[in-house]
Amino acid sequence: MAVTVSLVVLFGIALFFLLRSKELGYGAALTAAAFGFFLASTGAAHPINELTESLIEAATNL
Predict the structure, then answer these.
(1) Phi and psi at residue 42, to the nearest 5°
(2) pTM (2 decimals)?
(3) For helices 26-40 and 2-20, what crossing angle results, to 10°?
(4) Which end of the chain is more exposed for a tag (fewer CB within 10 A), N or C?
(5) Tell me, what DSSP letter sits at residue 15?
(6) Which residues, at least 6 apart from 11, have a Cβ–Cβ distance to it below 8 Å?
(7) CA nearest neighbour of 23 among 34, 36, 32
(8) 3-state secondary structure 18-54
(9) Rounded CA separation 61/33 (Å)
(10) Any residues with CB less than 8 A from the CB of 31 and at least 6 apart, and which?
(11) Are 36 and 28 in contact (CB under 8 A)?
(12) Angle (nearest 5°) at CA 40 between 26 and 45
């Protein structure tokens, strides 16, 4: 759960700067979608949380 909260903050900050700089490409759309899933905690949030945790774990093992 702590990872989810920090990712919501991270995606929120990234989305803020993407919208402020008017960078509305695919990266902004992906960031906005990820932010929405983490923030709303819908049924799709659990698989996304698992994927993110796996990616974080893989990154720490590099």
Answers:
(1) -75, -175
(2) 0.45
(3) 140
(4) C
(5) H
(6) 31, 34, 35, 38
(7) 32
(8) HHHCCCCCHHHHHHHHHHHHHHHCCCCHHHHHHHHHH
(9) 27
(10) 11, 14, 15, 18
(11) no
(12) 75
Residues 6+ apart with CB under 8 A from 46: none
pLDDT surpasses 70 at 5: no
Residue bearing tokens 């702590």: 2
- Is the model more confident about 25 or about 56? 56
Classify the C-alpha dihedral 48-41-33-44 as positive or negative: positive
CA distance linking residue 9 with residue 33, whole number of Å: 14
Amino acid letter for position 37: F
For 6-32, the pLDDT digits (tens) are: 777 777 788 788 778 876 677 777 777
